[in-house]
Amino acid sequence: MSTIPNLTLNNGVQIPQLGFGVWQVPDAEATAAVRTAIEAGYRSIDTAAIYENETGTGRALQQAEVAREELFITTKLWNSGTRDWSGPAGRDAVLRAFDESLAKLGLEYLDLYLIHWPRPMHGSYDNVWKAFEQLLADGRVKAVGVSNFGPEQLNRLFETSSLVPALNQVELHPHFPQHELRAFHAEHGIATEAWSPLGQGRDLLTDPALVKVAEKYGRTVAQVVLRWHLQSGVIAIPKSVTPSRIRENLDVTGFELDADDLAVIDGAATGVRLGPDPQTFDWN
């Protein structure tokens, strides 16, 4: 079984650098996928309220023959009921949403809770972040952070709170490496976590330059890309429902990319997003 390294967040909490994501996994399939992942050796599981698979994920957590303290569980706030983030109702809505997620997962606490999208067109996050501060102070979550935030939104948090997000989960892969945002994170002690670390299996996994690197190491392109994430100091959460690929994605600790090959992968950047632009994305 591969031994996945941990990264230490800015509050001292440790997170596995390679986790298992369940985005787009139907609730009915999430139980088997998460159970397979845990049996393979994953200890970090990432879900979200909007994925609508917290119940299935939680079922797998209850079935796991692994102690709760060995697992690192993340979910995310979907603020559909808090359009006015600056209003007092926002804080209460966050606490209710957290309770609902925790109940579906069947857990007594979370390891990480994230604001899923910044929605900058809707103003301040003050009351939402105050709720996160309360959850952290009450010991109901070990670390709090954000997802899809840019420097502007992070600076707005810094202006109103001394609590720096432990982590920012963003789209990140060799075609969209987010160098400037990662540098901002490093400056402020925020860990970078990649969603769609394999580029959703599109052109990235057939990129000729990456295929050549993978052939050199006798590995798949997916394994080489995940290794690039680890050596770049990025946390990655690949997703699959195929048992063989779940295990394959975990087998990335038995080799190391040299500087030349890291440069080749860095040079694959196209600057093209696969997901929506967080600065303009709004679901209302």
CATH superfamily caption: NADP-dependent oxidoreductase domain
Largest sheet, spatial ordering of strands: 3-4-5-6-7-8-9-10
How much helix, percentage-wise, in residues?
A: 25-40%
What is the name of the CATH class?
A: Alpha Beta
Order of helices and strands: EEEHEHEHEHEHEHEHHEHH
Task: Please identify the structural class as seen in this structure.
Answer: alpha/beta
Biggest sheet: strands, sense, closure?
8 strands, parallel
Description:
With 284 residues, the chain is of the alpha/beta class. It has one domain (6-200, 229-243): Alpha-Beta Barrel (TIM Barrel). The protein has ten helices and ten strands. The strands form two sheets. Strands 3-4-5-6-7-8-9-10 form an eight-stranded parallel sheet. It has a two-stranded antiparallel sheet with strand order 1-2. The protein is globular, with a radius of gyration of 18 Å. The model has no long low-confidence stretch (mean pLDDT 93).
